[in-house]
Every structure is written in C-alpha cells, then in structure tokens.
Write a structure and sequence with these properties.
The protein contains 2 helices and no strands. The chain is mostly helical. It comes from Oncorhynchus mykiss.
Length: 113
C-alpha cells in the first residue's frame, strides 16, 4: 500500500496530492469493509456447518435412543407377560386347592349330618 501511495504521489502534481490520498484512503476503507464482510460471511458459514453437524449428531443419538427404548419396551412387555402367566397359574393352583378344601369339608359335614 505504501509503495503504491508513494508511486502515485510521485507521478501526480503536488496540488492533487490531497485528492489522491483521499481516494487511496477511501479505496483502502472500502477494501477493508469488503474483507470484513467476507470474514463475517465465512464465520457464519462455519457456524451453520457446525450447527448442521450438531443436528446430524443429535439425530443419530436420537435414533440410537429410540432403538434402545424400543428394546427396553419389548423386554418390559415380555417380563409383564411372564409375570401375568405366573400369577394366573398361582391363582389357578390356589383356586383348585380351595375347591378341594371346600369339597372335603362339605363331605365331612355331610357325613356328620
């Protein structure tokens, strides 16, 4: 930048130096603004890419958790079915035992009468 400025100042008359310096300063400011805008755009693009990767990671984790939840639900249903069958069998055994006791007592009472 300094070399360009010095070259332009040497090649222009002294009366135009202020205008040349002002034009160079404006051009430098404009280029810095463009560079800052590109920098902000690059940062925003990187952040959106990072957010997208995070969303993909969250989606994968969600899928894994859904599968795990489904497996646990199947295990729970199997366990509940097993417990229900065992409980029903226990009730049947107790009912038969009570029916036998009742019929035995009824027979004893009928013998006494």
């Amino acid at each position: 930048f300094k070399a360009l400025r010095n070259h332009l100042l040497e090649s222009t008359p002294k009366s135009d130096h202020k205008a040349v310096l002002k034009r160079l300063k404006e051009e430098q400011t404009r280029k810095l603004a463009i560079l800052a805008e590109q920098y902000d755009h690059s940062i925003n693009e990187m952040l959106s890419t990072q957010a997208l990767r995070l969303d993909e990671a969250q989606e994968a984790q969600c899928q894994v958790l859904r599968m795990q939840l489904q497996q646990e639900l199947e295990l729970l249903n199997a366990y509940q079915s097993k417990i229900k069958m065992q409980t029903d069998a226990q009730h049947d055994r107790e009912r038969k035992d009570l029916e036998q006791r009742v019929s035995l007592r009824r027979a004893l009472l009928e013998q006494k009468v």
